[in-house]
């Protein structure tokens, strides 16, 4: 399964090569050109000789992870997060370094902690990765500063119609985009698998400026906080209610016209759709929609419980509905943009 393979690959911000290489192999039979730009985005094109609106669809390849920043005299690895990770989830979790070395995240034993330390989560600077080394020299022979540590969760079906795995933000988007490239549309289509989203939306900024599309669709994984200890208004999205259409976040205020288009088409096609009830965070739409003279942009996200953790959960139905909705939007896009007919002759 494509999503399983993508979920289990390791690739954090600035180190997306395993994910990029895998995606390149998957999409190569279905596209005309594939390039890797200077920052590391994987760019694929279809129908580049057709006239009509140039549409860019994006999904980011990177996941949150940990970077080794120091090695102590007794062989423990100090680290910092790459992307947003809640320190409360880290203690005792296994991680993998350099694709083969296994470590466990540790902290001062609870009976050695002061009372005030036991009353709150330990900050990241009080945690370390134990790789079984007995000295700095031994640890340094296996790990170097700047190496990444990844969660080790295996992808598997979970509960009733759910999937459990790591890196669903945003390997769900990458999987959907790869599937869309197997389909045919009557206008130039550019797929941008972007880098470094988790540390500042960097790859999308470069891709949008270089490609200068007429329209952009961002496919994401987003927060689903639909758990019993929170009021419904704080759930943001819910599993099983379909993909989420963003209204506003910290980087983008989305066009009411485009939101209505998405909503109306979902209703016409009988595809479940929900709105993202929350304005925190941001995604690749931020730099895309303000690139050059401005690019109309929408975001559709697959709801994801326990996002940015070692084990996230998504609904199989939400994934399928997101894929179907983006497909329908692409089919309807020329009409929405006012293009009455698409000239299929080669550009001169």
Mean pLDDT, to the nearest integer, reads 91
Q: Roughly what percent helix?
A: 25-40%
Overall spatial form: globular
The SSE string, one letter per element, is: HHEEEEEEEHEHEEEHEHEEHEHEEH
- Major sheet: order of its strands? 1-2-12-3-13-16-14-15
User: How many beta-strand runs?
Assistant: 17
Number of domains: 2
CATH class of the largest domain: Alpha Beta
CATH topology of the largest domain: Aminopeptidase
What kind of sheet is the major sheet? Answer: 8 strands, mixed
CATH architecture of the largest domain: 3-Layer(aba) Sandwich
Query: For the terminal residues, how far apart are their CA atoms?
Result: 41 Å
Counting DSSP H or I runs of 4 or more residues, the number of helices is 9
Structural class: alpha+beta
Give the strand content.
15-25%
Please tell me how large the radius of gyration is. Answer: 21 Å
CATH superfamily of the largest domain: Zn peptidases
Low-confidence stretches: 340-348
Protein name: Tetrahedral aminopeptidase
InterPro entries: Peptidase_M42, Peptidase_M42_aminopept, Peptidase_M42_dom2
Binding site for Zn(2+) 2: 169, 198, 308
GO molecular function: aminopeptidase activity; metal ion binding
């Amino acid at each position: 399964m494509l999503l399983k393979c993508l979920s289990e690959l390791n690739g954090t911000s600035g180190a997306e090569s395993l994910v990029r290489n895998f995606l390149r192999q998957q999409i190569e039979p279905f596209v005309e050109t594939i390039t890797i730009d200077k920052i590391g985005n994987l760019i694929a094109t279809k129908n580049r000789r057709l006239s009509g609106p140039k549409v860019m669809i994006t999904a980011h390849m990177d996941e949150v992870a940990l970077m080794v920043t120091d090695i102590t005299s007794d062989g423990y690895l100090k680290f910092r997060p790459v992307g947003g990770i809640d320190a409360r989830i880290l203690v005792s979790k296994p991680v993998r370094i350099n694709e083969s070395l296994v470590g466990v995240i540790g902290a001062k034993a609870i009976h050695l902690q002061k009372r005030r330390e036991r009353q709150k989560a330990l900050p990241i600077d009080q945690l370390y990765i134990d790789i079984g080394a007995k000295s700095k020299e031994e640890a340094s022979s296996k790990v170097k500063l700047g190496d990444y540590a990844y969660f080790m969760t295996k992808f598997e079906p979970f509960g009733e119609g759910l999937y459990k795995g790591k890196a669903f933000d945003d390997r769900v988007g990458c999987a959907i985009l790869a599937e869309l490239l197997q389909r045919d549309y009557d206008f130039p289509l550019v797929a941008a698998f972007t880098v470094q989203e988790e540390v500042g939306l960097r790859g999308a900024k470069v891709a949008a400026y270089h490609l200068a599309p007429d329209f952009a669709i961002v496919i994401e994984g987003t927060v689903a906080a639909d758990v019993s200890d929170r009021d419904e208004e704080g759930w943001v999205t819910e599993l099983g209610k379909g993909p989420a259409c963003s209204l506003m976040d910290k980087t983008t205020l989305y066009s009411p016209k485009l939101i209505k288009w998405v909503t109306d088409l979902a209703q016409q096609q009988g595809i479940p759709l929900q709105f993202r009830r929350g304005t925190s965070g941001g995604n690749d739409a931020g730099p895309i929609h303000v690139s050059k003279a401005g690019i109309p942009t929408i975001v559709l996200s697959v709801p994801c419980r326990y996002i940015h953790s070692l084990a996230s959960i998504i609904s199989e139905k939400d994934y399928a509905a997101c894929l179907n909705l983006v497909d329908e939007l692409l089919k309807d896009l020329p009409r929405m943009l006012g293009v009455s007919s698409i000239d299929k002759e080669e550009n001169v």
